[in-house]
Structure formats: structure tokens, C-alpha cells
């Protein structure tokens, strides 16, 4: 698998994790419906699509880069044609890739410097299955023979080169030990030869720390990107997402309980003005995370449509016959400043009170705001003028 494709798959994985975090926040802030969709999609990507793509990539890489015959068993030694071009190469590093076949053959990634008969040395990276019995024969600094099975394909270790290559391998150290790896090679060459065989050369501490920090930054950016996309999906617009996330401390502290005292109240009203197209309303009820709206039918003077409104989406719940009407009103007549003021009045008079809903309707002339709060034995309603915020006695 191309390393950029592999990196793209890993980016997709971390963005999916960020989207999962955004959907969890959506559950907390009351956007359960859209958060569920985002959560399920991101979870499927993170746990199914990404692992499947990586496994298929490893398997395809084995088939293409390990020199196996088409249809040959995984782990079998590579079948190389006598005419396949061969070259001397020096192992710069090798690491186990984490795949084992039949508990015996282990996939290793080799980084080598290839010394062609003509031209400059080049760096090659490929993967090949070897056994633990063969491993001691492959170490940093060792010279090996590699073969090219297909033009443009990665090379393959030739485990049993023809005898005439033995002289080439014996002469290789004196010829190539002084030749530095091409730019981009991961490790320095032959100083490791004197240290004896090893399965991988330890990178320098500075380079390791740098890679860890770079990977951490990339992962953080992917998480942030997935979180940003997820929040926009869950909360429908960046403005709504920013408003809800910004007031999380107030929600945790109890200063914000529902739509009626949330920063999204103004956004909801702007959306409803656009979506209702001036429809005459019978009533609107604000709950903690959504609205319930009764509107007079646009086509039937005796009909009434009931809607639910959540996260910028207005959905028709049912239609019915209009039983009685005190006279309609427009969503333009709902003043968010007055709504917040009357809610603050109720909460100021009774600290810690739990408000269940806020209803706005026309009642015998003026438009009123009823604030319902749950008590120990019954629900208490306080009524206010929707224009001035003055309290109106009930009963």
C-alpha cells in the first residue's frame, strides 16, 4: 500500500474519533437525534472501514511486493525468475510490521540502499515475510542481493542467490562501506555492522522525540478537524455549535437550563422567521432542547399544523382541525430579550427552581408568556406580557 494512502487512512481514523467526541457532546447538549447519526457513521468508519482498508492494503502489498507467485501460499519463499535483474544492497534498517502467517512467517519492512552497476545508489523500502530462523541473517549493515520482479515494483530479497554473487557480496564492504545512504534514509549504515546482528537499529533520541511530537501534532489536528466537522453536523451550523459549546460552563453551573435562556434562542428565532414564511401561529412552547409549534394551516382556514423544531430543522408532526383560536400571532412578535427577562425573574424569585417549559400565545388580546415550573406537588405557572415583560396575575 502506498504510504500516502496509508497515512490518509490513518487521518480518516483520527477524524472519525474526533467526530465521535463531537457526537458525545451532542448527546450531552440535547442533540440526540443528529448526534446518533454522526456517532454511528463515525464509529463504523473507525472500527470497520479503516481496519479493513489497512488489512487489505497489507495483503495486497504482500502479493505485490514479496515476490510470491500468483495464488501461492502466504509465507512461501519468493519464486524469482533467473532472468530477474539483481543488484547488491545494504540493509539500513528493518522492523517487524506486525503481521504473522501461520505463527511462523513474520512480515518485516526493510529499508535498503541499492548499489546499481551504473548510476547513483538509491533508497528502497519494501516488506517481505521471513522466518525467525532466517532473521539472524538479516541485520543492519549486511549486504544482500535484491531482485526486481516487475519494472517499477519494489525489490525482493533473493534468499538463495547464484554462487557467482558470493564474490560480489564479499567485495561489497570494501566498495560501499564508505558510501553514505541516499537522502531520506532512516539510519546510518555500516557502523552498526560492528555491533553485530540486530532486528532493528535504534533511532537517535532526538529524532525519535521529533517524530513523536510531529505525530502528536498531526493526530491533534485530525481530532480537531473531525470534532469541528462533527459539531457542525450535530448542531447544523457553526454558529449554533459555537453558541452551545461556549455556554457549556453555564449549563454545568445551572445558569442555562433550556432554549429559553440559551444563546441559541436568537438563532432559532432567525431560522423560524425564514422557515415559517409569515405563518400565523396559535402557540409556541419552548422545552429544554426543542420547540413545539402550532401554526394555522396555510391552505385550510379550519386546519392546524403542529411542528417540532430542533437544531434548525422544522418537522411536521401532525395536522388536525382547529378547535378554538384566541387569534394568531407572528414569530416576529416573539422578543428573545423579554423571554430571557421573564425567565430570569422567575429564577430570581425562586433560586434553584426547575423550569419545565415556556409557552407563548395570544390570550384574550395580548400575547403572553407562561413560565411553567415543576414543584413538589404540582406545576406552577407565572404569566407575563410578551411585549413589556410585566407580570400578569393568574387565576
Unreliable stretches (pLDDT < 50, length at least 5) are: 64-72, 185-203
Task: Please identify the structural class as seen in this structure.
Answer: alpha+beta
Q: How many beta-strand segments?
A: 13
What's the pLDDT, averaged over the residues? 81
Strand percentage = 25-35%
Assign an overall shape.
rod-shaped
Describe the structure.
- Helix content is 37%, strand content 25%.
- It is an alpha+beta fold.
- The chain has 3 domains: 1-65 and 203-235, no CATH class; 86-202, no CATH class; 254-392, no CATH class.
- The strands form 2 sheets. It has an 8-stranded antiparallel beta sheet with strand order 9-8-7-6-10-11-12-13, covered by helices on one side. Strands 3-2-1-4-5 form a 5-stranded antiparallel beta sheet.
- Strand 1 (86-101) and strand 2 (105-115) form a beta hairpin.
- Helix 1 (3-28) packs antiparallel against helix 2.
- The chain is rod-shaped.
- It starts with a helix and ends with a strand.
Please give a quick description of this structure.
The protein is α+β, with helices and mostly antiparallel strands and 395 residues long. The protein has eight helices and 13 strands. It folds into three domains: 1-65 and 203-235, no CATH class; 86-202, no CATH class; 254-392, no CATH class.
Q: Which SSEs are present, and which pair or pack?
A:
Blueprint: H1 3-28, H2 32-65, E1 86-101, E2 105-115, E3 122-131, E4 143-147, E5 156-157, H3 164-176, H4 205-235, H5 238-246, H6 248-253, H7 264-276, E6 281-286, E7 291-296, E8 303-310, E9 313-321, H8 336-349, E10 354-362, E11 367-374, E12 379-385, E13 391-392
Helix pairs in contact: 1-2, 1-4, 2-4, 4-5
Amino acid at each position: 500500500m502506498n504510504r500516502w494512502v496509508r497515512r490518509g487512512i490513518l487521518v480518516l481514523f483520527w477524524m472519525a474519533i474526533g467526530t465521535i467526541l463531537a457526537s458525545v457532546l451532542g448527546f450531552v447538549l440535547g442533540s440526540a437525534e443528529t448526534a446518533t447519526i454522526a456517532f454511528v457513521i463515525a464509529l463504523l468508519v473507525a472500527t470497520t472501514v479503516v481496519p479493513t482498508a489497512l488489512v487489505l492494503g497489507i495483503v495486497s502489498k504482500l502479493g505485490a511486493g514479496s515476490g510470491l507467485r500468483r495464488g501461492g501460499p502466504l509465507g512461501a519463499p519468493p519464486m524469482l525468475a533467473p532472468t530477474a535483474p539483481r543488484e547488491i544492497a545494504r540493509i539500513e534498517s528493518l522492523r517487524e510490521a506486525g503481521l504473522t502467517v501461520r505463527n511462523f512467517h513474520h512480515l518485516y519492512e526493510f529499508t535498503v540502499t541499492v548499489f546499481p552497476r551504473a548510476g547513483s545508489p538509491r533508497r528502497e523500502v519494501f516488506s517481505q515475510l521471513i522466518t525467525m530462523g532466517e532473521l539472524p541473517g538479516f541485520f543492519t549493515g549486511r549486504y544482500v542481493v535484491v531482485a526486481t520482479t516487475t519494472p517499477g515494483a519494489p525489490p525482493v530479497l533473493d534468499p538463495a542467490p547464484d554462487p557467482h554473487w558470493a564474490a560480489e557480496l564479499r567485495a561489497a564492504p570494501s566498495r560501499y562501506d564508505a558510501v553514505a545512504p541516499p537522502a531520506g534514509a532512516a539510519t546510518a549504515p555500516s557502523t552498526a555492522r560492528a555491533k553485530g546482528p540486530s532486528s532493528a537499529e535504534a533511532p537517535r533520541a532526538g529524532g525519535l522525540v521529533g517524530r513523536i511530537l510531529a505525530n502528536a501534532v498531526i493526530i491533534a489536528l485530525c481530532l480537531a478537524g473531525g470534532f469541528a466537522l462533527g459539531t457542525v453536523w450535530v448542531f447544523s451550523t457553526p454558529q449554533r455549535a459555537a453558541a452551545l459549546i461556549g455556554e457549556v460552563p453555564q449549563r454545568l453551573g445551572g445558569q442555562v437550563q433550556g432554549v429559553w435562556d440559551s444563546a441559541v434562542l436568537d438563532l432559532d428565532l432567525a431560522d423560524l422567521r425564514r422557515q415559517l414564511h409569515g405563518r400565523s401561529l396559535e402557540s409556541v412552547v419552548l422545552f429544554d432542547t426543542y420547540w413545539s409549534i402550532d401554526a394555522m394551516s396555510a391552505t385550510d382556514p379550519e386546519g392546524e399544523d403542529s411542528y417540532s423544531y430542533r437544531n434548525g430543522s422544522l418537522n411536521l408532526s401532525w395536522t388536525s382541525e382547529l378547535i378554538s383560536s384566541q387569534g394568531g400571532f407572528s414569530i416576529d412578535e416573539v422578543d428573545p430579550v423579554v423571554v430571557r427577562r421573564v425567565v430570569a425573574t422567575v429564577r430570581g424569585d425562586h433560586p434553584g427552581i426547575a423550569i419545565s417549559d415556556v409557552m407563548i400565545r395570544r390570550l384574550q388580546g395580548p400575547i403572553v408568556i407562561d413560565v411553567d415550573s415543576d414543584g413538589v406537588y404540582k406545576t406552577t405557572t407565572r404569566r407575563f406580557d410578551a411585549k413589556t415583560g410585566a407580570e400578569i396575575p393568574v387565576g
